Amino acid sequence: MADGNALRRLQEVQFALVELQLYLDMNPDDQRAVKQYKELSEQLAQLKKAYEKERGPLMQYGNSSSPDRWAWHKTPWPWEIEY
Length: 83
Hints:
This protein has 2 helices and no strands. It is an all-alpha fold. The protein is elongated, with a radius of gyration of 15 Å.
């Protein structure tokens, strides 16, 4: 997946999770939404792992599992990514 597409997909899934979380705050018994939240959470973890393996850490301060901690300087800055 192209770098911009991978990052965009991460952002889309994160946005969906935020929206679902807000919905579930008001509708905690909606099992369909709970299931979708769990599925998207797993998908996000997989997307992050794949992205970090290919491009380096997404977060700083030791929150990423990338073996190459200092690869961040090799990736484009957010304003350099063309979607």
